[in-house]
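Hi team, as promised in this morning's meeting, here are the two structures we talked about. I've kept the exact order from the run log so nobody has to guess. The first one is mostly here for context; it's the second one we should focus on when we meet again. Sequence first, then the predicted structure tokens.
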Amino acid sequence: MDWMLLGAIGGLLILSAWVFEMAEDVKHHRGLRDIRFAFLYLPGISMLLAYSILTIEPVFIWVNSTILVVVVFEVIYTLHIIRGRRAGGKRHIKGNQRS
């Protein structure tokens, strides 16, 4: 088996899990459980992406850049939910009957 194919399949599985989790969060109007996770994760994934680019590893460039986009989306979505809660907006909040 070509090593690039092995890496691509592994990357696809990882990305599928991230996208599935993100879709579930949006579907149920949930943000990140703890946004501090993302503020630690973003610099880490950015550094890994830089390393992947510098070492010219196409599979890791693809995986890390896609995960970076997903995490940025999740942070923006979570901040949107938090802002809505603070403003007293009528957003659906898991465990609450408001809609």
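And here is the second protein, the one for discussion:
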Amino acid sequence: MTPMGELGTFLKSRRARLHPADAGLGHYGRRRRVPGLRREELAQLAGVSVSYYARLEQGLGQNVSDTVLDALARALRLTDAETTHLHTLARPHRTPTTPTDPAPVPVPPGIQRLITMTNDIPLIALGPATDVLAWNPLAHTVFAPRPPHPHHRPNMTRTLFTDPPARTLYTNWHAKTHSVVAHLRMTTAQHPH
């Protein structure tokens, strides 16, 4: 099997194991003819066209960008190891690299103590780019119940825009998105690199 054929097989298998409810999609009473998500549903969750995603599953995609691969990994709820495997399958001739994350922003001890000691309201400490630096168990339950464990630290902006259930957390989701984009623009202007 060609590497692109292996990519297609991998994508199909991961799509088949993800149930619509896991992805925040409703059940419309019809009996589903496919196990897991439909191609159309996954393409929508990943922000790619259905025809583009279909070509990837058929082993016909070439030069898939990291952005698309990462969007597919998020939509499919892949583990870190599966995400690395996805990138390797999509680029069989490229030397695998380990992504370098920026150094974590330290949480001041007082803030960490406050988060640890507070159990009756959700508390989250965010970095400048809205990465979760620390949170209490209630915040994990409310804002990101789908990650495998509380040690997974999502980016709240990414969650806001790419996780359909996140919309239900805000009474005015559109206003929240405008506020978050404004914050990111300000942060980028203050720290361009």
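Starting points for discussion:
The chain is about 50% helix and 5% strand.
The first helix runs from residue 3 to 17.
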